[in-house]
Amino acid sequence: MDVRKLIVQADKIRQEQKITQAEWCRRAGFDEFGKLVSNTFKRGNCKLSVFAQLLKPLGYEIRIVKQEEKE
Fold first, then answer.
1. Could you read off the pLDDT tens digit of each residue along the chain, which spans 71 residues?
2. Which helix (H) or strand (E) holds 58?
3. Which among 6, 16, 57, 62 would be 20 to 30 A from 48, CA to CA?
């Protein structure tokens, strides 16, 4: 899965929770106008630390899971 798809998925979660982009940014500790989220969508990319911080107020986190080896 590429980063753009993860960003879109996080935004869908935000919409389901009926949180505005501005409120999402405030809850994550960023600017109050939602500019960070808007810029992230335009670029289709962001720092992993930023994405992790945006996921927290939605009740999600990033995890690294080892893949099982294919035989």
1. 678 888 889 999 999 999 998 899 999 998 767 788 888 878 888 888 989 999 999 999 999 889 888 76
2. none
3. 16
